[in-house]
UniProtKB/TrEMBL annotation:
UniProt keyword Transmembrane helix present: yes
Keyword Cell inner membrane (UniProt): no
Domain Protein FecR C-terminal: 208-266
A Pfam family per the record: FecR_C
Annotated FecR protein domain residues: 61-133
Domain of life, source organism: Bacteria
Gene3D superfamilies given in the database record: 2.60.120.1440, 3.55.50.30
Protein name: FecR protein domain-containing protein
Listed transmembrane segments: 13-31
Gene Ontology molecular function: any one: sigma factor antagonist activity
UniProt keyword list: Membrane, Transmembrane, Transmembrane helix
Entry-linked InterPro entries: FecR, FecR_C, Ferrdict_sens_TM
Amino acid sequence: MLFKSDASRNSRGWLYVLLLVITGAVVLLTWKLKEPAKPEAITAVNLEVPGVQYLLHQGETGRRTRITLPDSSVVILNSASTLRVPVNYAPSNRAVILDGDAFFDVKPGKDSFTVTSHILRAAVLGTSFRMRGFSSQQGATFYQLTGTCRIGKSYHSATDNQPEILERGQMVLANKEIDLMEKETYHPEELEAWLSDTLRIKDATPMAVSRILEEWFGVEVEMRGDASKSRTITEAAFYNATLDDVLSNLSSQQDFKYKINKNKVLLIF
């Protein structure tokens, strides 16, 4: 009877382990290669057309900025947002780039007006709408107020590049991280109230207040501490108020401190 040495058995054991490691690595690599590619990160800067110079309009934190374009179209730029307008903006070249939140009242023209964010691109002839899309966020929204609009993703999607046609009362919700764009409905009266710059808060807890501020001023609100003991705002109205004006008033009623940094707001309870 022949017996194999311990060295021979150990050698075969190590070879078996090595084969398992290699097989596992191949399986992992194959799985990684099959994962769907995530959309490339896009910022407002790399949405610029090469060779085109842009004027940069910046919205002041907590305030709205009114901009009149060369074709008399009007843009209301919300807090901490930016709008890039070509220096050679003309009736045949009405294309702007948005990073943030803005309302557009576009004058009718022979050629379409386009606004592009890192997630959405809208094309209209003469209409009004609101678009929100910060390059620091994965989500974007679009609200059609008057007229019609053709809207789609501003990046190439691996799943769906079909644009939508929107009319009054229709909106789009988009999320780049999961590569999704959905057509929904909303109440146009809410956008019209926003345009009147009359903010009304009624029966709102701190959580509800934070959501109202996010929608009204186009900011991100983070809450820290215990807000459960803070009282509900029964009713409050603010006319042409800045974000600081509103927070200063609410902070004394709901007992919190706040910090504003660009388009981010921190509420400390």
